Amino acid sequence: MKSKPVTIKDLSKHLFLSISTVSRALADNKNIRQETRDKVLEAARVLGYKPNLTAVNLKSGRTFSVGVIVPEMITPFASQVLEGIQEVLYPKGYRVIVAQSDENPETEYKNIRLMEQFQVDGIIICLCDQTLNQELYLEIQDSGIPLVFYDRIPKAMDVSKVVVNDYTKSLFMVEHLIETGRKRIVHLKAPSSIYNSVERLKGYQKALEKHKIPYDPSLVINAGLTFEDGMRAAAHLLENKIDFDSIFAFTDTLAIGAMNYLREQNITVPEQVAIASFSGTKLSTLVYPQLTTVEQPLEQMGRSAAEIMLKKMADKSFPNETIVLDATIKIRASSVK
């Protein structure tokens, strides 16, 4: 038979101390002598006392938990951001509850409602769609639960967010391809419902304009987001006999899918087709050839989002904050002969 959990009342009887004294000692109250505090903590350890978190949370009005909602967990992107979030929140006594929206705005909606039911103290989120759940975000913020967005952000909303400069870094990456002699550059584009997708397309277009290369709509493929989408996009290019000498993909995932397909068709990378992407996950160095990419500081993105969250949880009136992190162009073997 399972034994009953040890309570503060049990510690009180064991130590011949009042319940209030034991309670204050466990709370590290400075008005309790150190000798008494040590005695209570030792008894708690020996008897196996564990605080009733529900009772503690009800008393403080906080759950010391933060919800994190990610679009997917297949690639290392989310896990690298989570490392940064946990690095900041764990030492402050916060638990992290993770939910995956699976690139589905309806699932994202349900996940946010679930976090609300869990009474989390805040939500850190990377969106599926920049417009669809905006009313919910406003409702959640108005209810007193702070939101911090990272990477993918809502359109035209005054919110706290952590991003990189997608437009500028995409421009630089496409310029790199142009500088290596490429003129027929394909852009594997994500859905326009994602804010970054729009910005990276703008960077691609600006690089072509700057170098007086005509914009060809047939070279912009609405690819999707997965490895399979990258493979399908590469197959589309070959089946339709579209002339191209390089690819700039929305993410490493798309780029790797396309690169694998091209190599299966005996098309050499980078000799025949150079490939570059945006994300900078650990995947970029695990493939052959290693992938040229815009490397986002993913752990720092998580740390920055968590630091903003701590400020907003401590002070509900703390103003919204935007942090733009620097990303690094990593030139590797997939784009250089």
Automatic annotation (TrEMBL):
Domain spans labelled HTH lacI-type: 6-60
Gene3D superfamilies: 3.40.50.2300, lambda repressor-like DNA-binding domains
Coiled-coil boundaries: none
Pfam families for this protein: LacI (PF00356), Peripla_BP_1 (PF00532)
Alphabetized UniProt keyword annotations: DNA-binding, Transcription, Transcription regulation
Domain of life: Bacteria
PANTHER family assigned to the protein according to its UniProt record, in alphabetical order: HTH-TYPE TRANSCRIPTIONAL REGULATOR GALS, LACI-RELATED TRANSCRIPTIONAL REPRESSOR
Name of protein: LacI family transcriptional regulator
Record organism: Flavobacterium gilvum
Organism ancestry: Bacteria, Pseudomonadati, Bacteroidota, Flavobacteriia, Flavobacteriales
